[in-house]
Amino acid sequence: MELYTLKNTSGLFFGGHFVELLDKIWWTKKSKIEAEKRLLANAFQAQILLLWYSFVSVAASIHYLKFNAQSEYAGISWVLFSILILCISGFINGLGYKERAALVKDSYEALQKLHDQEKYNPSNPSNPFDLANKYEKILSICENHSNIDYYLALCKAYLHKSELDRKPTLYIWFFVIWYKIKRILLLVIFYLILPALVFLYTGA
């Protein structure tokens, strides 16, 4: 993944490799912040989705018992839907969004501390190899961030910082916009369309 360099870095006189590594640490930190946000958002939406599906399942069961007890497909359809909820619940628990987000947070906080120690201590800089080893050790704390995390970090930094020497490409802007649109469409499908299709199929 290509990393962009910040202008006016206080450690320019340390040498190109040192500055490049500091920038790499900074961008990794920013990307991991976006990764944590993504994982926490997924955890929140997953929990709300399970609550919504559980409510829909109970409401549908009450509806059929009260108003449409003779429906040929209602019973089996909502039993399958309830099984689907259990499967989704187990799958979501297996993904461990909150636990992964906590590890990502530990990682970017350690990266922030490492970056500040090196950037604001120009009188006693670390050897670039030692700094690289510290960086690699912190990376091993958690999973790597995804491309979309980096793209989001880059776009947000561009909107709030004037000292970036490169701009997000049109491809990156398109990728971020499409990601946002796709996420909204998926939420609409999961929250509204899927339960509606089950209701229509069972003749509610």
How many beta-strand elements?
0
- Main sheet characteristics: none
In N-to-C order, the SSE pattern is HHHHHH
Measured on Cα atoms, how large is the radius of gyration?
A: 24 Å
Query: Could you give the distance between the termini?
Result: 51 Å
Helix count, DSSP H or I runs of 4 or more residues = 6
The helix content is over 70%
What would you call the structural class? mainly alpha
Low-confidence stretches: 1-14
- On the 0-100 scale, what is the average pLDDT? 82
Bulk shape: elongated
Q: Which range does the strand content fall in?
A: under 5%
Please provide a written account of the structure.
By secondary structure, this protein is mainly α. It is 76% helix and 0% strand. It is built from six helices and no strands. It has helices at residues 16-67, 74-95, 97-119, 128-139, 147-160, 170-202. It starts with 15 loop residues before the first helix and ends with a helix. Mean pLDDT is 82; it is low at 1-14.
Quick structural overview:
Helix content is 76%, strand content 0%. By secondary structure, the protein is mainly α. The radius of gyration is 24 Å and the shape is elongated.
